[in-house]
Structure formats: structure tokens, C-alpha cells
Amino acid sequence: MIINRSKHSKGFTLIEVLVAMVILSLSLLAAIKVASAVTRSAIDLQDITIAHWVAMNKVVELRLAKALPRTGRSNGQDEMAGREWRWDILVAETPYPKLREVRVEVKPATDDADAPPTTTVISLISKL
Q1: Which domain holds residue 109?
Q2: Is the dihedral angle over the CA atoms 79, 49, 71, 65 positive or is it negative?
Q3: What is the dihedral of CA 9, 11, 15, 19, to 10 degrees?
Q4: Model pLDDT for residues 69-105, shown as the tens digit of each residue
């Protein structure tokens, strides 16, 4: 039996299919990597925003107090957006007796104690 093959066969060779599959898999891998980075950035931004709210709440509490905050360090935990957040407040004197510098650092309560804060807010508080 003689098989008659024409010079112009139709379809792709196995090598062409494999090359196309490699190109497709590399492009899909790059797309997944980009989507993962975008998701991670959104999660980080959410954490920073909530931590900032916690810090600003602490600053507002100090501003609403009847007296200037005492110098020194204090810390505690608050719940915000269904999560626990650890805050550290450092109150320092300034060259002006009726003005205090307040530094509030906030991070998730689940983080290691030595982990850097998620956000830091520095404010000046005065009582006239």
C-alpha cells in the first residue's frame, strides 16, 4: 500500500504544539504572579488603613482629655474591623510647656512583639 503525502500537510507538528504550550504556560504563570501581587497589595493597604484608624482614635482620645497627657510610654489593644490591634503610645515633652509630642505605633496583635509597626502617627497635643 502506498501512502500519498502532499507537500503541504495540514495541521501542526508535535514540536509546534509543545512550543505553543510552553508559551501559553509562561504567560499564564506571569498573569497569576501579577494577580497575586495585586491581591497582596490590597491586603497590605487594608491593614495599613485599619491600623491608621486605630492610631488616629488614640490621638483623638488624648486630644479630648481634659489635661495634657503625661510623658512616658503606654500600650494596649483595641478591636477594629473584627481584628485585635496592639498600640504603643510614647508621649514626649517639647520645648513648649503646654505642648506634647505623641507618637502612636499600631500593628496587628498577632504579630511578633519585635515586628515593625504597621503604621505610625505622630501628633502634637496642646491644652490652653
Answers
A1: 14-126
A2: negative
A3: 140
A4: 999 999 999 999 999 999 999 999 999 999 999 999 9
